[in-house]
Design brief:
By secondary structure, the protein is an all-alpha fold. The chain contains six helices and no strands.
């Protein structure tokens, strides 16, 4: 999860810069965890992310949603799906990379790049 260091970090320009710059695990967490108290915003984020995730293999989608949206630990996911924690860590990494690449493509289309 992304924790703001100070008020300067909370500046919308800095948040936008961090989101649209290079993508890291921390930035994915930031995107998926913004304003968790706002149901309408949560629905909008899910609608934006769902088309990307729906193209993923089933296991990848389950790991991605389970970890990032539902907040399950890798250990819990491993237990749920009968895999090792290491296998879940690898799956989460691969799924995150797929998500970053696909999100970048979608963003570039929106920005007409």
């Amino acid at each position: 999860m992304y924790y703001y260091q100070d008020e300067e970090d909370m500046n919308p320009g800095n948040i936008t810069k961090s989101i649209f710059g290079s993508f890291s695990q921390e930035k994915i967490d930031t995107i998926l965890n913004l304003d968790n108290d706002d149901t309408e915003l949560e629905d909008a984020k899910t609608q934006a992310v769902d088309p990307i995730i729906s193209d993923f293999p089933d296991t990848c989608a389950k790991v991605f949603w389970g970890y990032f949206r539902d907040g399950f630990s890798l250990k819990t996911l491993a237990d749920m799906y009968g895999k090792t924690e290491t296998a879940m860590k690898v799956a989460k990494f691969r799924c995150s990379e797929k998500f970053k690449n696909r999100f970048r493509e979608v963003l570039n289309k929106i920005l007409n790049r």
